[in-house]
Amino acid sequence: MVKRRFMTLARHIIEGEKRHPEATGELSRLLSDLSLAAKVISLEVNKAGLVDILGFTGDNNVHGEKVKKLDFFAHEILIRAMDHGGHFCAMVSEEEENIIHIPAKHKIGKYVLLFDPLDGSSNIDVNNSIGTIFSIYKRITPDGNPGTIEDCLQQGINQVAAGYIIYGSSTVLVYTTGEGVHGFTLDPSIGEFLLSHENIRIPKKSHIYSINEGNYLYWHPGVKKYIKYLQEEDEKMQRPYSARYVGSMVADIHRSLLYGGIFMYPADHRHKNGKLRLMYECNPMSFIVETAGGRASNGKDRIMEIKPTTLHERSSLFIGSEEDVIMVEQFISEEN
Ligand code: P6P
Asked: CA dist 21 to 13, 29, 30, Å?
């Protein structure tokens, strides 16, 4: 039996940085801090279902602390884990309207972190997978000062790292720095993320589509035609496709990454600019999927080339296997 290498996340990042003499080791320390936050969130997410069973009061836990909604809990854990390592000049969270500045007592770093602390948290009560999504840029304003809106509002092509943690049957951290996409599964018995998915490549074409068909009436006519096309019979093109929709972006895209597939959340009559957030959902997931050989667009333009104007702006999203995304773009352009 081939013995799987005991490759921890920290060792994998350090070995990756060794290939870049100019690397300072900062990214490995930053991602290690992030993995610590992920372990704490994973612990809380996995016992969330027990809160009622264990009889904790609705508002106070056994330590007399106010029990917070899980997504705000994850938000606070990430800030506390990431605000003192000297890595960042600013942070942006889905849970916070404005830029989160680094406390004066801590060193100001050269990176910016944008994150969705717990995407899909409404799924926690039904034990569906949920996730944390993060996106990292190098600042563009002079070092030493607090980060600014320009540091935070960069195109996705400027990302230096991105990733997600999916809290499901196991907790898996997937990240990229642009050189391959790698997945690490948390071994709770030793509290380490161990390499489990090395150099993930997404199949060029798939037979799985993922979209909330309840929005059918509100879709662009090209999207309607594309979905009907996928449902026709054509053995050569593996049609009809299978439909899979968790309703948790991280879960639906993680499956698409591993099995192939196209995940779509189009803008429609009700979501004029789409539902998903550009800076800390669409951009990081696009960096990951493109690095794995896939494609990500808003139906017309490459997600990572969109010039952002506000921190929490939304975008239409078509992401996954390259040939499938190209095809839906063709259906949309033919109906414009
Ligand atoms: P709908 C979860 O609330 C989320 O933000 C994404 O994770 C998910 O893909 C989407 O919304 C689901 O939205 O409208 O299909 O319930």
From this structure: 13, 16, 18
Summarize pLDDT for 54-88 with one digit per residue, the tens: 433 345 544 445 555 788 889 999 999 998 889 99
212 lines ligand 1 (CB under 6 A): yes
- Supply 188's token pair: 């709770």
The band of 226, judged by pLDDT with boundaries at 50, 70 and 90, is very high
Mean pLDDT of 165-171: 95
Domains of the chain: 9-197 (3.30.540.10), 208-334 (3.40.190.80)
**Angstrom distance (rounded) from CA 52 to CA 266:** 37
Tell me the Cα Rg of the chain: 20
Cα 122 to its chain centre, rounded Å, is 16
The number of the ligand 1 atom at minimal distance from the alpha carbon of 250 is: 7
Question: Please, where are the H alpha helices in 49-140?
Answer: 50-53, 70-82
Query: Is 120 touching ligand 1 by the criterion CB < 6 Å?
Result: yes
